[in-house]
Amino acid sequence: MHATSLRAGSDPKPKLFTTPWWWRWALGTCFARITEPMATLALISLGTFVSGYSYGAFLVSVYAFTGALTATTSGKLIDRAARPRRLVLIMTSSSFLLHVALAAFGTFRLSTVLITVTTALCAALPGGIPGLSRSVLVRYADPRLRNLAFSWDSIMTEAGWILGPVVIAGLALTGLPWVEVAAMAVTFLGVQLFLGPLVGGDKGTPPDAATTAPGSLWSYRTAWPGLVDSVSIGMAVTGVVSALPVLLPRAGASPAWSGILVSLLAATGIAGTLVYGKTAGRIPLHITVQSLLTLIGVLTTVVALAFSDSALSVAVWVGLSGFFITPFNTQRSISLEASIPPALHTQGFSAQFALFGLGSAISAGMLALISGVTAALLAIAGFALLISAVTHGAVRKEIFTA
Description:
Elements: H1 3-10, H2 22-51, H3 53-80, H4 84-107, H5 112-124, H6 129-140, H7 146-171, H8 177-195, H9 224-250, H10 258-279, H11 287-306, H12 311-339, H13 345-369, H14 373-394, H15 396-401
Helix pairs in contact: 2-3, 2-6, 2-7, 2-8, 3-5, 3-13, 4-5, 4-8, 6-13, 7-10, 7-12, 9-11, 9-12, 9-13, 9-14, 10-12, 11-12, 11-14, 13-14
C-alpha cells in the first residue's frame, strides 16, 4: 500500500500548509518555474548586446526548443536514477555553472556559435527539473488533498510567469545583460537548496514496488489525455498571448497594454485555481471529463477573442481565458498522475512541459503562416479541440473501466 495512504487512514485531519515539507517544496518550485519566464527577456537582452535583436530572439527559441526536446529524457533519467538526489545535485550545479558561463561569454562577445551551443546546454541539462517538483509534490501530499496540492502547483507556475519578467525588467535597469543571465543561474541554487533535500526520500514510496521497469510512458493509454491536452493548452496560451499585439491595435488600444493583459491572464488564472481547489471534491464528474469541459471553456474564449473589436472585450476574454487555463492545468496534472505508476511521475510531468512547448510552437507557426489573426485563432482553437476530443474519445473505455 502507498505510504501516504497509510498516513491518510491514521490522520483524520490531513494537512498541507503546516507540514514541514510544504514551504520547502513551495520555494523550490518557485525557483524551478521562474527560470523559463526569465529567459525570454534575459536572452533577448544578452543576444541584442552580442549581435542584435534578431540574435536575441534566436537564443530564446533555442532555449525553449531545446528545453522542450530534452524534458522527457531528463525526467526519465531522474526517475530511473539509483541515487536521484545526487543526480539532481549534479544537474542543478552544472546548470548554475553553464548559465554563469553563458553570461561571461555574452559579456565578452565571444563566438556566437559558442554562445548558441551554451544556450542549448543551459536548457537541455535541467529539462526535467520542473516536472521533478510536481513528482515531489505527489510523493509528499496526502492523497485526500491532491486536488488542492495540484492547484497550488499551477499557481506556482502562474506566479513564475508574473514574477520572472518583473525580475528581469528590474535587473535590466543596470544596463548589464550578464546580470540578467546570472540571475537565471541563481534559480538553480534555489532549486537545490529547497527542493533537493526532498528528492529521493522514502515518503510515498511503495514498499512492495516492482523492481522491473514500468514500461513506456505512452504505453499507458489512460495517460494520453493528460499528455495530448498539454499540446492543446500550449496552443491556446500561445495563441492568446501572441495575438494581443495585433488584437489591441485593431481594437483601438496600444499594443503596450499586452504586458498588462498577460499579467491579468495569470492573475485570473490564480483566482480560478483557488476556486477549483475549493470545489473540485464536489464536482460529480471524472477528472478527464472535467478537463475536456474546461478545455472547451478555454477554447471558447479564444474564439471569442478572435472576434473582439474593443479593448474592453479583449480584456474580458483574456481574463476569462486565464480563469479556465490554470484550473485546466491542475486537472491535466491530476489526470496524468492517476494514470501512471510513481516510477514514471517525473518523466510524465516533464513530458507535459515538453508537449506544452510543442503546442506553443504549433500555435506560433499557425499565427505566422495563416493570414489574419482571426483566422489563425480559429484554426488554433479548432485544431486544439480536435486533437483533444479525438484522444479522449479513443481511450474513454479504458478510463471509465480503470
